Amino acid sequence: MGDDDVIALSALQHWAYCPRQCGLIYREQVFDDNVHTLRGQAVHAQADRPGFEFRRGLRVERALPLFSDRLGLVGKADTVEFEPDGTPYPVEYKHGARVDCNGANAAVSEPDSLLAPAKHAA
């Protein structure tokens, strides 16, 4: 499977948030940082550093590479907490309120079911 055949998990997340934004970022290669994206990058600073630790009886992995040849997906988990029995729980870090691509407060939409098993940390 070549690089053109895989889809970045971040592209799916952008698509769920706003298909137009996804197209601009991944197809047109257009993206401008602003105060909100810079704050988000600061929040991700720890999660983006690969490593692991044990916390509250859990193994906590940061910046864990993810892939599925069958689904043609590739990405990186911010953090995955592993229960003592090995059960993984992804943790996704986000900063700020949830809004749709028009800037309005957004309700959870159907595509977000892709992230349903994930824990969310603010």
Description:
The chain has one domain. Helix 1 packs antiparallel against helix 2 (19-27). The protein is of the alpha/beta class and 122 residues long. The longest helix is centred in the N-terminal third of the chain and has 10 residues, at 35-44. The protein is 23% helix and 30% strand. The protein has helices at 9-17, 19-27, 35-44; strands at 7-8, 51-55, 58-68, 73-82, 88-93, 119-121. It has 3 helices and 6 strands, in the order βαααβββββ. Strands 1, 2, 3, 4, 5 and 6 form a 6-stranded mixed β-sheet that branches. The protein is globular.
In short:
The protein is an alpha/beta fold and 122 residues long. It is 23% helix and 30% strand.
**What structural category characterises the helix and strand content?**
alpha/beta
Q: What share of the residues lie within helices?
A: 10-25%
Q: How many individual helices?
A: 3
The global form is: globular
Low-confidence stretches: 106-122
Number of domains: 1
The count of strands amounts to: 6
Radius of gyration: 15 Å
Distance between the termini: 35 Å
Written as H for each helix and E for each strand, in order along the chain, the element string is EHHHEEEEE
| Biggest sheet descriptor | 6 strands, mixed
Please tell me the overall pLDDT.
77
Strand content: 25-35%
What descriptive keywords fit this protein?
six-stranded mixed β-sheet; globular; disordered C terminus
Task: Please describe the topology of this protein.
Layout: E1 7-8, H1 9-17, H2 19-27, H3 35-44, E2 51-55, E3 58-68, E4 73-82, E5 88-93, E6 119-121
Parallel strand pairs: 1-4, 5-6
Antiparallel strand pairs: 2-3, 3-4, 4-5
